[in-house]
Write a structure and sequence with these properties.
By secondary structure, this protein is of the alpha/beta class. Helix content is about 45%, strand content about 10%. Helix 7 (about 160-170) crosses helix 9 (about 190-200) and helix 8 crosses helix 9.
Length: about 220
């Protein structure tokens, strides 16, 4: 039997953590093993507790979620981090993704969406909650310059083949591997191969970071 996904909850509101723990621990394949009230406490606890996925709030005392995420993901074999946010924290979300977070989740998302996000991030093979991710990405990237073009920082875009660019654009539109395969008339295994090559060429840890790069460089534009 496969071991449950080990989850850490990092939020300064005890009631929020209690609610999340109740939902997560109700699932046979998920297990909350660490709770922390701020980023500093989380980093201390995670030194001695192995976890797979961290739910990380942004605004916390002592050490905020962004700083904690950057420190946590800088280590080897770091757990994947899901940043908890609301629409009014868009600029923080983008910074969190740049810091190494694997994605984000709206704090008022339905329980089933949170559970799906944890499982998805643990697999590392899909963008979190595609409908919410697409909507939030397109909302947050409005802060980016409209005439932004690829820079030397993202020169790796030039290494992508035409098909890989096509796949990346569809990823940025919130398409799953199966949907991309159907749209391009190829096997899903072929799409997975393309995705792996895209991540490697962009130096992206997962699909979410690759998608943000697509928006940041102007390869994909919000609402286009």
């Amino acid at each position: 039997m496969t071991s449950p996904v080990r989850v850490a909850l990092v939020d300064d509101q005890q009631l929020v953590r209690a609610g999340f723990r109740m939902v997560i621990d109700s699932q046979p394949d998920l297990d909350v093993v660490v709770e922390a009230g701020d980023g500093a406490q989380a980093l201390r606890l995670l030194e001695s507790h192995r976890v797979d996925v961290v739910l990380m709030d942004v605004r916390m005392p002592n050490l905020d979620g962004l700083s904690a995420t950057a420190r946590l993901t800088a280590s080897q074999d770091a757990p994947r981090v899901i940043v908890l946010t609301t629409f009014d924290l868009d600029e923080y979300v983008l910074e969190a993704i740049r810091s190494g977070a694997s994605g984000f989740l709206l704090k008022d998302a339905p329980p089933e969406e949170m559970l799906a996000a944890i499982r998805t991030v643990h697999r590392g093979d899909a963008v979190i909650a595609p409908s919410s991710t697409k909507r939030l990405l397109e909302h947050l990237v409005t802060v980016l310059p409209a005439d932004q073009v690829p820079t030397a920082e993202h020169a790796a875009l030039g290494e992508l083949t035409d098909r890989e660019r096509e796949v990346l654009v569809l990823m940025a539109r919130g398409r799953s591997n199966a949907e991309i395969a159907a749209e391009l008339y190829v096997a899903e295994a072929t799409v997975k191969t393309h995705v792996g090559r895209i991540l490697a060429k962009l130096g992206a840890r997962d699909r979410v970071q690759a998608v943000v790069t697509a928006y940041e460089t102007g390869l994909v534009r919000p609402g286009a």
